[in-house]
Amino acid sequence: MRGIWNLTHGKRACGDLHYRSSLSLKGLKSTNSSWDSFRPKSISSNKVPSKNSIYILSIPITKKHSYIHCNHKRGFVDAGGRNTLSVMSKIEEKITQVVGKGWKKISSSDNRLNKSITKLVTGLLETIPYEENCLRSFPSKKHMVRYINEEYMTDDKSQGPNSIIQSQLEKLSVPAEQLDPIPLYHPTFQQPSVIVDQLRSFREHAYKIHLKRAIGCALGIPLTLPLILLPVVPNVPGIYLTYRLYCNVKALVGIKHLDYLISPSNELDQQTNRQESEKGIDIHSLKHINIQQLTMFDDVYRIPASQLSLHAEDDLILSEEAVDRFCKALDLPELKNDLTKAIKQEHYRIYGSAYNPRQ
User: Fold this and answer.
1) Fewer Cβ close by (within 10 Å): the C or N end of the chain?
2) Which portions of this protein are annotated as coiled-coil regions (predicted)?
3) Hey, is 173 helix, strand or coil?
């Protein structure tokens, strides 16, 4: 994986890295804003969240850029709610499983052609901005699993599961305000304002980018159909464009849901939000997200506060060793490749050269 990210992909990398630059410059405002004097009453916890719970992580790569991940699986919902999944959602799961098995078969093959295809596709995948994976980790709003708060569950009038798919709210007559906010965990050294600014950047600027890319992939797929007539060579361009179309659509769905999560939920807050849109999002108006400090992050990074203050905003503060400790501590091995890719891409964006962990 390390050998793939090299200067031979420089042109593709520069094109995709422009995506991150546009988000950084347009969406992430200077810290000299109304947030500077804001110090939220953040809840600190040393308890590692369960892998089988719903939460969001902010994993700083630099002081200004984080890998945002939503830990969410449909299996979290009670058995009764699983039957409410849409037909399209179930088809998506089946197709994803079939494609995954097919890719595993090709990538593990000793055939020379399959090896070349694997190398080419893997190289292309390495150039996809890691922010896309962040957005894809957020499911659609109607398929999001949410927990009902304890006060409502202890009411004699309420009976049923304590976790539901959001599309069930109306059917089960559960008020939206009775949903528990989703915890968003971050290190103690990271200001919540930085996280909120990045989330707003996703909402405000990533949508147009992924919409444009999705349209481009959809237009390109028919052009690859003649390759199906070739009996030996598979239609790799068509398969890749189809996959990229799927990824961009998933990112668009994630952005739309993120817009709901970080938007005020009542009319008064919405009016205040419109009046103060230039100042940023007030953390107290986030009805669906509860930002909390997680002290175990500090053990993962192992960077003293005195040393951290010496780092510039664009210095890498996440290492591969820290990634290993993080994935082990939270039992999330599936994030290792994505976080490693994020480190490589941020290194290239900052220093303009390939990442070498030995340096």
Assistant:
1) C
2) none
3) coil
Q: pLDDT: is 162 or 223 the higher one?
A: 223
The two tokens of residue 82 are 């699983």
Nearest to residue 318, comparing CAs of 280, 284, 357, 285? 357
Contact (CB, 8 A) for 345 and 20: yes
Residue found under tokens 């817009």: 259
How far apart CA 15 and CA 336 sit, in angstroms, is 24
CA dihedral (144, 150, 155, 156) in degrees, to 10, reads 90
Q: Are 346 and 312 within 8 A, CB to CB? A: no
Q: What is the pLDDT of residues 299-351, one digit of tens each?
A: 889 887 667 766 777 788 999 999 999 999 999 999 999 999 999 999 998 88
> What residues are paired with 164 via a beta bridge?
146
- CA 173 to CA 203: how far, in whole Å? 30
pLDDT in tens, 130-142: 999 999 999 888 7
